[in-house]
Amino acid sequence: MGALIIKRLADAVHDGDPIRAVIRETGANQNGRTTTITSPDTAAQRRLIEQCYAAAGLNPLETTLVEAHGTGTLVGDPREADAIGATLGRGRPAGKPLYMASVKTNIGHTEGASGVASIIKVAMSMEHDEIAPSLNFDKVNPDIDLDRLHLEVSHHLAL
Predict the structure, then answer these.
(1) What is the mean pLDDT of each run of 10 residues along the chain (159 residues)?
(2) What is the pTM of this model?
(3) Exposed, middle or buried: residue 10 (CB in 10 Å: 0-12, 13-18, 19+)?
(4) Which CATH class is domain 9-152?
(5) φ and ψ at 101, to 5 degrees?
(6) What confidence score (pLDDT) does residue 96 get?
(7) How far apart are CA 9 and CA 104, in angstroms?
(8) Which of 75, 128, 129, 73 lies closest to 102, judged by CA?
(9) CA 71 to CA 151: how far, in whole Å?
(10) Residue 101 burial by CB count (10 A; 0-12/13-18/19+): exposed, middle or buried?
(11) What are the extents of the domains in the chain?
(12) Spatial distance between the Cα atoms of 46 and 106, rounded to a whole number of angstroms
């Protein structure tokens, strides 16, 4: 079970609340022009990531961890990885990997609660300066070229 209490940063500071993480930007979009509603569109995902980073004034190269949907689907996962690699993996120097994770490898697909679980997992990773391993991850989908996308799946506790 998990819960998030979301407040404006100024209010949380004023109230003396413990601040686990700050959400700098959010965004949502439709999957684009695809054959089915469950098939994501790589270009639409890429544009959304770029828009969120620009609006927040963040440098994608400073991102160390991205929490992906990562459900293991044959179509969706490669498209999601391509969008992440094209935006957050692009221009990444050697030795500075972008870890791609999904809470689903650790706790299963929790449907509506997966978003809350993902935010808690990333906040805890930032707080402890560690990236949890993807415990039940066996092998990458052959349609995802981790090296080309400058992505890495954490198999052990990483910093």
Answers:
(1) 90 96 90 73 93 97 90 83 95 89 82 85 91 85 92 81
(2) 0.88
(3) exposed
(4) alpha beta
(5) -135, 170
(6) 86
(7) 29
(8) 73
(9) 17
(10) buried
(11) 9-152
(12) 26
